[in-house]
Target: Transcriptional regulator
Amino acid sequence: MKRNSIQIRSWIVRKGIRLSVLAKKLSVHHTLVSQTVSGTKHNRKVLKALRDLACPKKWLAFPPTSTTTHSGQPNRPPFEP
Model:
């Protein structure tokens, strides 16, 4: 499923959220927040923050999680409930 960046951006505007403020709170660069919203990046910290702010989960299109990496090492546990 593809991230719905248009819906997410309009939701952000309606809620009065500024990407730069969100980035500062998360201690990440504002371009990472923008790229995550647009779907070119998949930063878990940004996605979790948007979910915690009540952005509809169906628009976020979380990247698939797996229990192992390509090298066979355990992957970080998924943060979705």
Summary: DSSP finds five helices and no strands in the chain. The mean pLDDT is 82.
